[in-house]
Design brief:
By secondary structure, this protein is α+β, with helices and mostly antiparallel strands. The chain has 4 domains: about 50 residues; about 160 residues, Penicillin-binding protein 2a (Domain 2) (Alpha-Beta Complex), CATH 3.90.1310; about 280 residues, Beta-lactamase, CATH 3.40.710.10; about 130 residues, Trypsin Inhibitor V, Chain A, CATH 3.30.10. It is about 35% helix and about 25% strand. It is built from 25 helices and 35 strands. The strands form 12 sheets. Strands 2, 3, 4, 5, 10, 20 and 21 form a 7-stranded mixed beta sheet that branches. It has a 5-stranded antiparallel beta sheet with strand order 12-11-25-24-23, with helices on both faces. A 3-stranded antiparallel beta sheet has the order 1-8-9. A hairpin with a 5-residue loop joins strand 20 and strand 21. Helix 9 runs antiparallel to helix 22, helix 14 runs parallel beside helix 16 and helix 16 packs across helix 18. The longest helix has about 50 residues. The chain is globular, with a radius of gyration of 36 Å. The protein starts with a helix and ends with a helix.
């Protein structure tokens, strides 16, 4: 009986356990079904999203290019790639695949450390997870497309290539203050002003699932930014920069500038300033590389001091800085008086060398006086006493009104950031007493910007119209459609065409017999006005601004030039002058544009008689063929880069250049150029120097001629890329007397 009872209990216990198991199983199964039916899609999406988030990269668009008016590239962006390691993916692969990936990466990029890379995929014994749980590690940034494709072909596990963009400026410091750049949250020049057009739309690269739930990678390409076409003429810009550099070397100053504009449209053709910098590396002043003392000084500066220096270097002086313009303002006063009818061209005044204005003696620059002078004489001789008397006839109210009409104290609206209006640096109408009336008349005791006075003077000679200046003509999208356009805009008419016509011709006298005689170019009709103005503290005698406004042809001006030397060091009256830079710039433009003489063939200068060459399109050609052609055309050249394929040229094809001009050739390696190096230029070197240079570059030297001579030819020519170890043949010729004398 007892045994039966125990059996029943055991059976009941088994049944109970089975019942509990079945109930538990049903509950779990029900839960699984519930989760699958009710939340299945949600959890599946989350799981897929988790996978997607393991590879979700933004594809940076190429920033839009910036071109000059002739489509010369000034700024360009190219696609580059960041090499990224997904440690989780690599860790999931076999040991041999891991080893292949890590060793290959270290072979291609010596800066990477194998031990460090290995540690990224090594399990932590404490946590059981790999040491780099954040699975997106940037290894190398900015490799080019060819290297990226080479690495892709190796099928490295866990390695991805994130597309980004690299901004470059092929001409380095050319028009640096005008073009500007973007740096963090700061934006300068055209780059800042037109950023919204050029920035483009990013793309995206991430993981997707196909219908079979297999993982596939999906790319949505980026949309490149729009192209900005400037009004700048590369060649004229280069000329302007050359004269600025030459002047700075001869007469160091706080700032030197040269602007060229079309007075009829407001288009800026050139804007060059001293204190230039390499747009590819704007955070390093150029002197760091060339001046050891400056480098030491620079490194000793605090971060704040360095940033203050850089901000001043980056600032566009012609747009953002103000100064007292001096005598280039006098024609504007004369224009106002003529327009108001208070004087005529025949009205005369007497200059005895000084004038008493309410008890204050104001001297003319010619202390002996100019005697009896008319309007043309006053402007040609830059007579202070004469222009003061004109201003007195005009009166403070009208003088003030015309100052406003000519745009002083207001922004011109030029399409560049940081323009100063200088309104707080002008006299108010109530503040113009007799002395202020006098000093304003010859451009003192008030400030303006370079662009303000250039725009005002343009109205003086173009028929009386204040034109809005601009540096960008069009913005073009990747499809070739114009999405933005600047056209000549008349802000207002300041003076009549009659007044403008008179002054435009009258100012020729400044060049023919006045203070502007140094800018005469035989055969060419030029009008101009010179200026020399004290700045700031009148107790000091070393603060000056020298200015020169010139335009040509005088009868129908196509170009107006303003040159400025601001605060020259060791200023000596009559020594420093803007005349040489102004004349040089005009001569260069006349040659470049092949402008015919305007004063008769018998007076023609030799400026337009030099032989010229029309450049062919060299892009895509071999370096060897191109330099051979340039030699035949009597043109010099400079090769930038390594390789035997021309990728760009400056000036562009179709440009007319003088024989002897330098052509810049940008080269890149083609598929067959791997391992080649550029042949150095040893022309004009001695045998020992040439041999040393070529040997150090890895070449064998074969020579012909006298080893006491100098290299007169070399083959291959310099700039051509060849394999190391190749022969370079040089021909040596005896030194001439001129060479021996240095």
């Amino acid at each position: 009986m007892k045994k039966t009872t125990m059996g029943i209990k055991a059976k009941n216990k088994f049944v109970f356990i089975l019942f509990v198991f079945i109930v538990t199983f049903v509950i779990i199964l029900s839960r699984v079904v519930y989760l699958k039916v009710v939340h299945g899609e949600e959890y599946e999406a989350a799981a897929k999203n988790q996978q997607i988030n393991r590879y979700d990269a933004v594809i940076a668009p190429n920033r839009g290019s910036i071109l000059d008016r002739n489509e010369q590239v000034l700024a360009v962006s190219t696609a580059v790639y960041n090499v990224v390691l997904d440690s989780l993916v690599l860790a999931e692969n076999k040991t041999e695949e891991q080893e292949k990936t890590l060793t290959t990466l270290c072979q291609y990029f010596p800066e990477l450390d194998y031990t460090t890379l290995k540690d990224y995929i090594t399990e932590n014994p404490t946590t059981g997870e790999i040491n780099l749980p954040n699975n997106w590690k940037y290894l190398v940034k900015g490799i080019d497309r060819s290297l990226k494709e080479e690495l892709e072909a190796l099928n490295l596990k866990g390695v991805y290539y994130e597309q980004t963009s690299k901004r470059s400026y092929p001409l380095k410091n050319l028009a640096c203050h005008l073009l500007g750049f973007t740096r963090g949250g700061s934006q300068w020049g055209v780059e800042g002003q037109y950023n919204d057009y050029m920035v483009g739309t990013p793309g995206r690269s991430f993981i997707l699932y196909d219908g079979a739930n297999d993982i596939t990678y999906q790319d949505y390409p980026a949309q490149d930014g729009d192209t900005v076409v400037t009004t700048i003429d590369y060649t004229i810009q280069q000329y302007a920069e050359d004269v600025v550099d030459e002047t700075m070397n001869e007469w160091p100053a706080e700032n030197i500038a040269a602007l060229v504009m079309d007075p009829n449209t407001g288009e800026i053709l050139a804007l060059a300033e001293s204190n230039s910098f390499d747009l590819n590396d704007p955070g390093i002043p150029p002197q760091v590389e060339t001046d050891p003392a400056f480098k030491t000084e620079w490194e000793a500066k605090s971060s704040k001091e360095q940033m203050e220096y850089l901000n001043n270097m980056w600032k566009c002086f012609s747009i953002s800085s103000t100064y007292e313009p001096g005598s280039i303002y006098k024609p504007l006063v004369a224009a106002a008086a003529l327009e108001e009818g208070v004087i005529t061209p025949e009205t005369t005044f007497y200059c005895g060398g000084s004038i008493d204005v309410s008890g204050t003696t104001i001297h003319c620059h010619l202390h002996s006086g100019h005697g009896t002078v008319n309007v043309e004489d006053i402007l040609a001789q830059s007579c202070n006493v004469g222009i003061i008397q004109i201003a007195q006839k005009l009166g403070a109210e009208k003088l003030f009104r015309y100052q406003m009409e000519f745009g002083f104290g207001q922004k011109t609206g030029i399409d560049l950031p940081g323009e100063a209006d200088s309104a707080h640096l002008l006299h108010s109408l109530s503040g113009i007493g007799p002395v202020e009336l006098a000093t304003i008349s010859f451009g003192q005791t008030f400030n303006c910007t370079t662009i303000q006075v250039l725009t005002a003077f343009s109205a003086l000679i173009n028929g009386g119209n204040m034109m809005k200046p601009y540096v960008v003509s069009q913005v073009i999208d990747p499809k070739g459609d114009i999405v933005y356009e600047n056209k000549p805009e008349v802000v207002r008419q300041v003076i009549s065409k009659k007044t403008s016509d008179y002054l435009r011709i009258a100012l020729k006298a400044t060049v023919e017999r006045g203070t502007g005689k140094k800018v005469q170019i035989p055969g060419y009709s030029i009008g101009c006005k010179t200026g020399t103005a004290e700045q700031g503290d009148r107790e000091r005698d070393d603060l000056w601004a020298l200015t020169h406004m010139a335009y040509f042809p005088a009868e129908n001006p196509q170009y107006i030039i303003l040159t400025v030397i601001y605060l020259p060091e060791d200023y000596a009256d009559g020594v420093q002058s803007t005349a040489p830079m102004t004349k040089s710039l005009m001569e260069k433009i006349i040659k470049y544009k092949n402008l015919e003489p305007t004063e008769g063939a018998e007076a023609a200068s030799a400026l337009t008689t030099k032989e010229t060459v029309v450049l062919p399109d060299y892009v895509g050609s071999s370096t060897y063929d191109v330099v051979t052609d340039l030699d035949a055309k009597e043109l010099t050249y400079k090769v930038v880069g390594t390789g035997n394929t021309i990728s760009n040229q400056v000036p562009k094809s179709g440009a007319t250049v003088e024989k002897g001009s330098e052509i810049i050739l940008y080269v890149e390696k083609a598929s067959g150029d791997e391992g080649t190096v550029s042949v150095p230029n040893v022309m004009g070197k001695t045998y020992n120097d040439a041999t040393s240079i070529l040997t150090n570059a890895g070449f064998e030297v074969v020579f012909e001629g006298d080893t006491d001579g100098i290299v007169s030819s070399q083959n291959p020519q310099y700039g051509v890329s060849v394999e190391k170890g190749e022969e370079v043949k040089i021909k040596l010729e005896a030194k001439t007397d001129a060479t021996q004398n240095g």
